[in-house]
Amino acid sequence: MAKIDSHLHVWTLDDDRYPMLPGRVPNVPGDVKRLLSSMDEAEVDGALIVQPIFHGFDHGYVNEAIKAHSDRFKGMALINPQRMDAVDQLDHLVTDKGYTGVRFNPAMWVLGVLEHLDLTPEERSKHFKTCPECQLQHMNDDAGKAIYEKAGELGVPVGFMVSPKYFDQVDDMLSEFPETPAIIDHFGGCKVADGEPGSNANFDALIALAKHPQLRIKVSGFVGPSDGAMPHEDTWPMVKALLGAYGAERLMWGTDFPWIQSHGGYVDGTRIIGQIPDISDGDRAWIMGETATSLFGDWN
């Protein structure tokens, strides 16, 4: 069984070739050497690198990682929907650079967000409420739909980094473009604190999206939904509810490296799914790697 980490990032803090965006320097290291060492220690065969916002739309560092370690890494791109040539950019990254997916982040649909990346998230939120030129758009606008449809034509999935308030937009695109495979990251931003499955409106809305057979869910970034420490046992009912609604063939696990280094460590993060009781070996195999390889292709 291949063990595939379906969600992580890499970045470099001290390489002038790959500058960080103003005001967007992370507080944890995320270099490729450190990642490979962690993967080797945890016996992880391959990983999907999601382009980090810290390097913006400059995919140079991820390109280098994929080229140097094509047997270990695949990539998910980040496209600027405010560019007139956004569809062409996606085509280039998939066709010429070998990327196997594209991420949709609602923040990229805020007109003006790219000009205000030096502000903290709190400052930006306050600014956007008062600035008439910085307006929240929708991922399912014409630009978003063009990128989404192109992803389907290219045969690569769209990965949504969204909170529950965006589920309606996701539902709209899933309905309009059923041929485009899609993923919702990190439990859809749902929280254990909002209630148990069945009495948690946000999580129940995520369960309801299982009606779209092309949608997969990443049980990744466990520290996000959890109120506890590693191995985040309070999230296990959510995993089992997703398993019941989607089936193991539509779930995939991910660590969200480098962040996990500050939340229990990479190796322990790879063991969470194996500790959840009453999941069959076959279902664990799907969640830990087979779903990812069925969607993104084999890691050789």
Structural description of this entry:
With 300 residues, the chain is an alpha/beta fold. It has one domain (4-296): Metal-dependent hydrolases (TIM Barrel). The protein has 11 helices and 8 strands. It has helices at residues 32-42, 60-68, 86-95, 121-130, 142-154, 167-176, 201-208, 236-246, 266-269, 272-275, 281-296; strands spanning 4-8, 46-50, 73-78, 102-104, 158-160, 182-184, 215-220, 251-254. Strands 1-2-3-4-5-6-7-8 form an 8-stranded parallel β-sheet. Strand 6 (182-184), helix 7 (201-208) and strand 7 (215-220) form a beta-alpha-beta unit. Helix 3 runs parallel beside helix 5. The protein is globular. The mean pLDDT is 92.
- Total beta strands: 8
Secondary-structure-based class equals alpha/beta
Q: How many angstroms separate the termini?
A: 13 Å
Cα-based radius of gyration, to the nearest Å:
18 Å
Domain count: the total is: 1
Helix content: 25-40%
The largest sheet is: 8 strands, parallel
Task: Please work out how many helical segments DSSP would assign.
Answer: 11
- Point out poorly predicted stretches: none
Bin the strand percentage.
Answer: 5-15%
CATH topology: TIM Barrel
Give the averaged pLDDT, no decimals.
92
CATH superfamily: Metal-dependent hydrolases
What sequence of helices (H) and strands (E) makes up the elements?
Answer: EHEHEHEHHEHEHEHEHHH
Strand order of the largest sheet: 1-2-3-4-5-6-7-8
Q: What's the shape?
A: globular
CATH class: Alpha Beta
CATH architecture: Alpha-Beta Barrel
